[in-house]
Design brief:
By secondary structure, the chain is of the alpha+beta class. The protein is about 25% helix and about 20% strand.
Length: about 220
């Protein structure tokens, strides 16, 4: 099993308040609070829809075990670490990843040991980005039973200005829709097709017969 925790949250969103007000042709500041909430909402929506981090965020990615024979077989559907054991790579959720800050592993007594950066490298050209072992390197052993291996990494395109224009436009379209329908008594206000179609080229898809490979939906804890 695996999980992702936000270490350093993003400080920007895919669109700014000024951009949203210009798109809506809103001149007054009367609705700034509502528009600020909508701005954050559509940023989160685009992130979850595409599986990508938009603005710079630092994550801690925890993995229970790194040996396939130690991964328990469970009944039903569950998320395992998105890992290719044969090629010693681990897919990093919420790519694109710009840097791996550190890698640590934990013993049974919770003692943390920093793993040398010479043991691994970042493949940022792939999507999702991948953590890769260097040649002839093996993973550490003797990890604690849960969250024994930690990868801290920085993900996202950068600041708001670096977010692809198609994603920004999708956020503006959905934000406009939410603003127009604010207060409506609907159970589910879905994003317009014109917005989702703009995001489709950016959706990270993972189709595999490997039972250990998932769509990286590990759930992010702030």
């Amino acid at each position: 099993m695996a999980g992702v925790k936000i270490q350093t949250a993003q400080t920007e969103n895919a669109i700014t308040l000024a951009q949203l007000k210009a798109y809506l042709k809103v001149d007054s500041s009367d609705d700034d609070t509502v528009l600020g909430i909508i701005k954050q909402t559509v940023d989160s929506w685009a992130k979850e829809y595409t599986g990508r981090t938009l603005c710079t965020t630092t994550y801690d990615f925890f993995i229970d075990d790194l040996a396939d024979q130690n991964v328990p077989i469970q009944e039903g559907i569950y998320d395992g670490v998105d890992m290719n054991f044969a090629k010693t790579t681990i897919n990093l959720p919420y790519s694109p990843v710009s840097a791996i800050t550190h890698v640590k592993y934990y013993a049974d007594d919770d003692t943390a040991t920093t793993w040398a950066s010479s043991n691994y490298r970042l493949d940022s050209a792939s999507m999702p980005s991948r953590f890769c072992l260097q040649r002839n390197i093996t993973y550490p052993t003797g990890l604690r039973p849960t969250s024994g291996f930690e990868i801290r990494y920085v993900a996202g395109y950068g600041g708001e200005s670096a977010v692809p224009q198609q994603i920004k436009q999708a956020c503006l379209i959905y934000a406009s829709y939410l603003f127009e329908h604010r207060g409506d008594n609907e159970k589910d206000i879905k994003a317009p097709y014109s917005a989702t179609s703009l995001l489709e080229p950016y959706v990270i898809k993972n189709l595999s017969t490997n039972p250990y490979k998932t769509n990286s939906n590990y759930g992010v804890l702030g």
